[in-house]
């Protein structure tokens, strides 16, 4: 928006000069023609700037809707980041204070590939109700979110963290609590509402309990975090984590990211991530290890968006371990997301490619449309079946959809298709293709709460 004011000023000034010169006869027809061409050029620039601004607002709203509120600490009020990386400090006498309340509620219509849905026309249910609160006091900030779903174990603690910026320019940050793991793309690894294959495998937009450090300056960002566990004592979590006799503990996660181009317009962020640690296995004190690496990229160019991610992961499970009287296989790992069970191969690779296209609206400028497709493939290095007979590979999963939003109202119309994609909600894993049609209707809200300054 800062570019629009000066551009308008140039147009008005040149237009006024043209009128004066025409009235006084001080300009030749050739100079007037050149002046008119320059005015037309500046007016075209103004129209392009306005269009880019509308696209940025649209992208920001769509990004915030995916999680109702970000679990990243907000420093926008206390400091201003420019594209050159220069940070302007808030030099007010008293520490800045802010407090906000947000959340969402969704309803869902679905139709699955089964006879009962064909005869009844599908089903409808309550999706989720979300409440979150975020605040800032000087260099301190915090965020808490609780989610309520309509299924068993549907009371889920999404995140709860505190953070403090340190250093003269606020480029360093310390963070603690239950928050997003720095692995994969920033900030999310999918465009749709349902989620991507990497998300259901636990390798993007995943949460864990620990402490971390972040450095951010100009195009660079570095995260290094230690996580004690990945569930904060919950039996069901947002996203996928090992469960039912497997648990990631004492882990270290590192991610380095670099942004190319103008962050507010055409840009691309490339990142490399690594995570590893212990794997608690069985009823006793036995431990194995887990390790994963990822290369990811995400960018926006005009009305187009693209995300890509490659993951290589491995779980080293000790032999001879039991859980609830059942011998645990070593070539697969039990996981859960929202309390729903699934299995991952103990070693595998994931490839994901997501595309999005914002659509220009002919009518109201406040109604925004986005087409997207999130595609993923999981290759099992342990074969199609584990030693217990569970099918663990290979998985194909795709989500194609249209997102519509107008103010606080959001609609996602999605078609899901997959083969052996039980971990992503398309059961059973029988080597055949399965599909599901899903329509989600949501209302999001966000309000600043009054704070008292001394």
Write a concise keyword list for the protein shown above.
disordered N terminus, 454 residues, Porin, single chain, 3-stranded antiparallel β-sheet
Describe the structure.
The chain is an alpha+beta fold and 454 residues long. The chain has two domains: 4-51; 88-448, Porin (Beta Barrel). It contains four helices and 23 strands. It has a 16-stranded antiparallel beta barrel. A three-stranded antiparallel beta sheet has the order 10-17-18. A two-stranded antiparallel sheet has the order 1-2. The two termini are 34 Å apart.
Q: What's the short version?
A:
By secondary structure, this protein is α+β, with helices and mostly antiparallel strands. It contains 4 helices and 23 strands.
Can you list the strand order of the major beta sheet? 3-4-5-6-7-8-9-11-12-13-14-19-20-21-22-23
Mass-distribution shape: globular
Count of alpha and pi helical runs? 4
Taken as a percent bin, the fraction of beta residues is over 45%
Fraction of helical residues: 10-25%
Describe the secondary structure blueprint for this structure:
Blueprint: H1 4-24, H2 29-65, E1 79-81, E2 87-89, E3 97-112, H3 115-120, E4 123-137, E5 140-149, E6 155-166, E7 172-180, H4 197-201, E8 207-217, E9 220-229, E10 240-242, E11 246-261, E12 267-281, E13 287-301, E14 304-316, E15 322-323, E16 326-327, E17 332-337, E18 340-345, E19 347-359, E20 367-380, E21 395-406, E22 409-419, E23 433-448
Antiparallel strand pairs: 1-2, 3-4, 3-23, 4-5, 5-6, 6-7, 7-8, 8-9, 9-11, 10-17, 11-12, 12-13, 13-14, 14-19, 15-16, 17-18, 19-20, 20-21, 21-22, 22-23
